[in-house]
Amino acid sequence: MVTRLTNALEIKKLTKVFGDRKALDRVTFDLPEGAFLSIFGPNGAGKTTLLRILSTLSRPTQGSVRVMGIDAKEEPDQVRGHIGLISHNSMLYPDLTAMENLMFVARLYGVVNPEERVRELLRSVELDHRRFDLVRTFSRGMTQRLSIARALMNDPQVVFLDEPYAGLDPHAVEIFDELIGGLREGRTFVMVSHDLQKGFDTCTHALVLARGRVVTFAPKEELDFEEFRNLYRQTVGMGVA
Ligand SMILES: Nc1ncnc2c1ncn2[C@@H]1O[C@H](COP(=O)(O)OP(=O)(O)OP(=O)(O)O)[C@@H](O)[C@H]1O
C-alpha cells in the first residue's frame, strides 16, 4: 500500500503589498502534515505578515494559500476551525479570570461541554489552581501558557507560533518546550523565530525570508547548521525591505 502524504500548507506565489511596499513577494512552498516549520529572517523580512495570512488574520494581495486543503481566501472560517494561533498579542482579556477567558472562547467555538474542556485545558498548562485569578495578574510565562490553552480549544491540526520564546525565562522556556513536545503528534507547527539555534533544533523544515522573498526552504535533513547559520548571516546583511 502506498501512503499518500498530504500537505498541511500549500502556498503559491503569495504576495502582500502595503502601499508601495511588497511585504511578501511570490512566496511559494508546500509543507507536509506533521511537519514543524521554523521561519527565520531579519526585521521586516515579512515573517509576521506571512503568519498573519496563514492564520487568516490578513488577506493576500495575490497568490493562493491552502491550509489543510482549504482555500484560506475563499473559506477563512473553515480554515479557522483547523488552526490555533499563539502570538504576542495573547488575545486574552486582562480583566477576566483565566477561567472566564477560556469559557468565552469555548462558547465561540460551540464546545459541547465547555466547563469540562476548559478545566482539562487549564490542567494541561498547569494553571488550574489559578483559574479564578485575573489574567492581568499573570506573569509573562503564565499568560503565554494560558494563550496556548486558548489556542488549543478547537483541537487544531495546525498551530502557529509567533516568536513564542520572546520574554520567557529559562524555566518558562522549558515548560513551553515540554508542552509543545507533547502536542506534536499528529499536528503541524509553524513558528516564527529569532533564535536560530533553537528554531533549527526544533524544526523539521526551515524557511528563510528576506525582503519578502524565500531565500531558503528545505527539510532540515538537507541542511547543515553551520552552513545554514552562515547563509542566515548573509541574509541579515541583505537588510530590511
Ligand atoms: N499593516 C502594515 N502596513 C504597512 N506596512 C506594513 C504593515 N505590516 C507590515 N508592514 C511592512 O511589511 C514589511 C514586513 O513586515 P513584517 O512585520 O511581516 O516583518 P517581520 O519579518 O515580521 O519583522 P520583525 O522581525 O521585525 O517582526 C515591513 O517592511 C513592514 O514595515
From TrEMBL:
Ubl conjugation as UniProt keyword: no
Keyword Signal: no
Domain of life: Bacteria
Organism: Slackia equolifaciens
Keywords associated with the record: ATP-binding, Nucleotide-binding, Transport
Pfam families in UniProt: ABC_tran (PF00005)
CDD domains reported in the protein's UniProt record: ABC_DR_subfamily_A (cd03230)
Family: Belongs to the ABC transporter superfamily.
Gene Ontology terms, MF aspect: ATP binding; ATP hydrolysis activity
Location of the ABC transporter domain: 9-236
PROSITE patterns per UniProt: ABC_TRANSPORTER_2 (PS50893)
Protein's name according to its UniProt entry: ABC transporter ATP-binding protein
